[in-house]
Amino acid sequence: MLDTNLKNQLKTYLQNLKSPVELVVALDGSDKAAELKSLAEDIAGLSSLIHLKDETDPAVLKPSMLVRSTAKNTQIRFAGVPMGHEFTSLVLALLHSGGHTIKEEVAVLEQIASLQGEFNFEVFVSLSCQTCPEVVQALNLMAAVNPSIKTTMIDGAVFPDEVSKRNIMAVPTVYLNGQQFSQGAITLTNILNKVDSGAAARQAEALKTKDNFDMLIVGGGPAGSAAAIYAARKGLNTGIVAERFGGQVADTVGIENFISVKETEGPKLVANLESHVRHYEVDIMNSQKAVKLGKNDLFEITLENGAVLKSKSIVLSPGARWREMNVPGEKEYRGKGVAYCPHCDGPLFKGKKVAVIGGGNSGIEAAIDLAGIVQHVTVLEFDSTLRADAVLIKKAQSMGNITIITQAQTTEVLGDGQRVVGLQYTDRTNGESKTVELAGIFVQIGLVPNTEWLRGAVELTPRGEIIVDSHGQTSLKGVFAAGDATNTPFKQIIIAMGSGATAALGAFDYLIRN
Predict the structure, then answer these.
(1) Mean pLDDT, rounded, for 301-323
(2) Rounded CA separation 34/120 (Å)
(3) pLDDT confidence of 484, banded at 50, 70, 90?
(4) pLDDT in tens, 14-30
(5) Which of 189, 211, 344, 456 would disulfide-bridge 129, Cβ 3.0–4.6 Å?
(6) Residue 132 a catalytic site member
(7) Which of 129, 251, 344, 369 is catalytic?
(8) Nearest in space to 220 (alpha carbons), one of 141, 275, 258
(9) Under the phi-then-psi rule, with left for phi > 0, alpha for psi from -120 to 50, and beta for the rest, what region is 431?
């Protein structure tokens, strides 16, 4: 199952085990069961502390593998074969179950350990999903700390009946004790906030005690990370407050235009960014949403939980999110057929008909990727021509199951109350309304900046972008901005990093002069 190189790497990691771990496999006669058995045998052969056992409970999902600590009786189950993006989740589950130090704040680990009650988490994933491992690993970490917390990763492609029964049309989807708990990206902090009713209030109180910053950065994507590194290297008391460190990049699949790195993936780049930022004394306040910018003696950032952070200067890098169609039915069927990440949710539509809204690079790339999974893809583009690169258009046109319709204005998402069944669009050449029957709609029509909370505080363009000058300064002296939320003409990772450096240097110059 594992090649020699991977076995050697894993054997090195497993040398960190301090206590025995059991791999309990539940198998059926499927090909996936054979793969899982081979994987379990390979892993067990790499460490004397790992013991292979057969599952005796007939009720568990098959094929699946339970990672159990014999010392702590913690349980982490993988239903399906945890390869692809979830292989790292498996490795971490083995290490954490075997007593290797968990790299998390002591206060967070204590909070997890003190949770009372029974928590049975199930998280539905696809192995091509970039967002899923973050959620799986957060839940697995909780299960490795507290024996009353159990978690099961379920590969939706291996268990389509479970997916259908629960009407799951987006991943990651998390269930807690049989009830839907969350859908989409969710951090460890936010999971704890939901299961521990007093967590948010305690966090707010802790944040209120923070010393004043020299530079406070709002947003933890490439721009915010670059700004933090440049600020910290200047010796400034620097903080980052972010809803989710990494931002959009965490959901990006392939990155091939990051100069000097021929190819990488979003989660890997985010991990490198965070490691680089943490190399300096930067206070990272993750899973915190900024809701207001104000100024008294110092600048003030008010958070959703009520805490107020104060700083001598501010760098705004809140990033952007997928633009919505804003048509009837879109919000009602989000996660029920309306999706924004083809790599994450595409496998759930295997053999079905879908549409991609948007004919730019993102839209045509999505159509090409989906065409290898689904029965048919219909691309709807509002304009008279596609905006994607010629090489992508040529590739899409060469595929037999992609139909491209231009001058098509999507007007409504159609559903049966449970899931998407089609969409309506207007043919802009003649005004005729048409209907397309399908099971999924992937929206790829660009980005909208996360700046609603800044209206009235700094000057914005009609599109909501923060207006900055050549030094990254906004209309409010002492407040700077960088990245995709600004009026920079090109939205690229490397440009965001450069603008983050510019904003930090601009803010440093401001501090020197003021």
Answers:
(1) 96
(2) 27
(3) very high
(4) 999 999 999 999 999 99
(5) 344
(6) no
(7) 344
(8) 275
(9) left
User: Residue 198's pLDDT is what?
Assistant: 87
Which two structure tokens, joined as six digits, stand for 462? Answer: 């009609």
Tokens representing 273? 């960014």
DSSP 320-357: EEEPP---TTTTTTBTTTEES-HHHHGGGGTTSEEEEE
CA angle 417–423–424, rounded 5-degree value: 125
Helix axis angle for 266-278 and 222-233, nearest 10°, is 20
Q: Per-residue pLDDT averaged across 261-284, rounded?
A: 95
Active site (annotated) includes residue 341: yes
Q: Which one, of 372, 313, 319, 376, lies nearest residue 506 by Cα?
A: 313
> Coil, strand or helix: which one is 66?
strand
In this prediction the pTM is 0.85
Annotated catalytic residue within 132, 341, 369, 484: 341
**315 φ/ψ angles, rounded to the nearest 5 degrees:** -120, 120
Catalytic residue among 214, 345, 369, 484: 345
pLDDT band (50, 70, 90) for residue 364: very high
Give the integer Cα–Cα distance in Å for 37 and 62: 11
Tokens representing 91 are: 């490795």
| Cα–Cα distance for residue pair 162/156, rounded to 1 Å | 8
Residues paired with residue 310 on neighbouring β-strands, in sequence order? 300
Beta strands in 41-190 (DSSP E): 50-54, 64-69, 75-79, 119-125, 149-155, 173-176, 179-183
Predicted confidence at residue 496, as pLDDT, reads: 98
* pLDDT the model gives residue 175: 98
Under the banding of pLDDT at 50, 70 and 90, the label for residue 1 is confident
Angle between helix axes 132-145 and 106-113 (nearest 10 degrees) is 70
483: exposed, middle or buried (Cβ count in 10 Å: 0-12, 13-18, 19+): buried
How far apart are the C-alpha atoms of 463 and 491, rounded to whole Å? Answer: 14
pLDDT tens digits, one per residue of 190-207: 999 999 988 888 899 999
